[in-house]
Amino acid sequence: MAKPDSRxxxxxxxxxxxxxxxxxxxxxxxQMPEYxxxxxxxxxxxNNLEGFRCQALADGKKLLVFTDGMLRGVVMLNEYQVSSKxxxxxxxxxGMERFGSQLSFEELRSAGPLDLLVTGAAAVSREGVHFGKGxxxxxxxxxxxxxxxxxxxxxxxxxxxxxxxxxxxPVPHAEHDVTVDVIVTPSExxxxxxxxxxxxxxxxxxxxxxxxxxxxxxxxxxLRRSGKHAA
Length: 231
Hints:
single chain, about 230 residues, alpha/beta, Rossmann fold, 3-stranded mixed β-sheet, 9 helices, 13 strands, about 30% helix
């Protein structure tokens, strides 16, 4: 059911793939109250969310999209930057950086609060425990946004996955694991029992390269050391 991506040598451990039926998930998400009321949405650069990003732009939503591996920070896209003819290209990983604007730390800090987070996954339990590629990027991204006061316990998280990616068995989760509120598959919508979400970064788990070289993390750490809050 997964769709390959030759940029990653067809290695499904290197990216979150698109799948048959992902467009159905987009249609369902668009009807959800969390989406309808959202003005600013943060979304991941996952392949299966390309159609979602395109439709969200058509619906007039402002999108904040993390670049792959957070290497180039966050890109902002909105309907004023992208013409109707360019939406499909702007929704791709290459196109979003062509049409969108990369946000500085101060620009990101002033972009919120964020109304909704939409992500893909390698797998997700019916309880709402999210599994990615194993790098922990979503946990770090959420932790960063939480440190900046852009998301919180009440910020809804929706995951779009194929039915085969939903795990029936309960699985443990740690304090730094981001949990999801709603699972959308091509055939069903699962509203999860609320599980705690991280309230910030777990600094002793933050990879050294993130603290030293990734955009935003170094600035957040500097503000914490100076006794100021990033928000």
